[in-house]
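PGAP2IP second transmembrane domain-containing protein structure dump, as promised
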Amino acid sequence: MWQLLPSISFYLFSTKSTLGINPLRSASCENILQPNWLLVGIGFGSLLFYLQWVFGDISVVSRWASNGFPNQPLDPIPYGLLIWFGLFCGIVIINRLSIVTNRWWVSVGFLGSGLLYFSRGNVSFMSGFALSIFIGSILPLLFDKIARGLSTHIVFIANFAYIIQVIYAVWTSAYNFVPFGGT
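structure tokens r here:
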């Protein structure tokens, strides 16, 4: 994780900041590559919602992986702890930036999310495990982008995106199942 933190260099001649350039940042090219605060905010709000929705309880992934009523779902204690272990492995894998910043790494998240939602049984649980590794690996990257960007704008947009997604989840799970709720 030490690769993500900006190196600190002190300027001996001038400590005055010009044009919004922070003198404690390492290079001027870092200011050119500022993250887009709107995209980072939407991504961070979605990540917060996903952490609360899928990984908020220890048994959500193991219960989603069940085949139905006659078949017993996976027990939450050993298998839920395996999901949290996947989140921890994702945070540890950040030391391999060549893996995490690869464009194909996003496909692990897409496949994990899709197979967790649309399949059943062990395939669904293993895709939830892969999704937990992916989510854990992008957490430090997003925190780094927030620290480098316009933090107030990013947090405001993240809260807005989170609230919109919570309202959507409440609408689809509660109000569409009551009489006249879907009209």
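The two ends are 49 Å apart (CA to CA).
lmk if u need the other ones
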